[in-house]
Design a protein that fits this description.
Blueprint (H helix, E strand, L loop, with lengths): L15 H11 L7 E2 L8 H8 L8 H22 L3 E3 L9 E4 L4 E4 L2 E5 L9 E8 L1 H10 L1 H4 L1 H13 L7 E7 L5 E6 L3 H19 L14 H4 L4 H4 L3
């Protein structure tokens, strides 16, 4: 007979350590290239660590955050396809993208809006999607992507440049993971920002080729951007 009054023990549920181990097993190998989505990162030294094989230590929490982001992107794409001629993949099922510097810099875009209502044109233009927590969503709505998320802005400018989608402002969508709200922002091409991002990528590649470590842009490990950096220990060890 089943005993529904039994009190579950702590050992009846998976441990956090077990879930983290499962998340690491599911995570993909570090990329062997510099991602175009990362070139808006102002710390070139951090980008160098990433390019040399450093990566986030995958956890169950991060796994869920990334999965939620992918699910949100797919859900927003479904909605937009009811309004636009939105193309998110090529005939072979792969994402649209680009590569440069002998494949050492690559990027994959969320989609291209090729047509739709006349009032929302002209076309085509880039579509990039993100999903963030409520606090960050509110800040993005209030201040815009360039002010609140420079890395996202750099990604958009870089993708516009390399995908030759510079004539018309990109459509940036951000979903609120807490409430389900969606906010849209049109982002004109910023050639200066695109050039800065490209130059930063070249700077990283040249430093790697020369066997040099790029200088830290911040004076102290106590600086808030350093405190939350995944490479803080390695960076400030010497």
């Amino acid at each position: 007979m089943l005993d529904f009054n039994r009190t579950p023990k702590r050992t009846d549920v998976p441990s956090l350590e077990q879930l983290d181990e499962a998340a690491r097993a599911l995570s993909s190998a570090p990329r062997a290239y510099l991602g175009g989505s990362r070139l808006g990162e102002e710390c070139a030294r951090k980008l160098q660590y990433e390019y040399l094989g450093g990566s986030l230590t995958m956890t169950a929490k991060l796994h869920n955050i990334f999965a939620a982001g992918h699910a949100s992107e797919a859900a927003v794409a479904q909605l937009l396809k009811g309004v636009f001629d939105l193309r998110t993949e090529k005939a072979n099922g792969h994402q649209f993208g680009f590569e440069t510097a002998q494949g050492r810099i690559k990027g994959h875009i969320d989609g291209v809006i090729c047509g739709g209502p006349e009032a929302l044109g002209p076309y085509p233009y880039l579509w990039e999607a993100k999903a963030v927590g409520g606090k960050y969503f509110t800040a993005l709505v209030k201040n815009g992507v360039r002010a609140e998320r420079p890395v996202y802005a750099g990604q958009i400018a870089t993708y516009q440049a390399y995908m030759q989608l510079t004539d018309n402002p990109a459509l940036f969508s951000v979903a609120n993971r807490d409430s389900g709200e969606i906010h849209f922002e049109r982002v004109p091409f910023d050639p200066k920002l695109a050039q800065e991002c490209t130059d930063r990528g070249v700077q990283v590649l040249q430093a790697v080729e020369a066997g040099e470590t790029l200088p830290r842009p911040y004076a102290s490990s106590d600086f808030y951007k350093c405190k939350f950096c995944d490479f803080q220990g390695e960076c400030w060890a010497t």
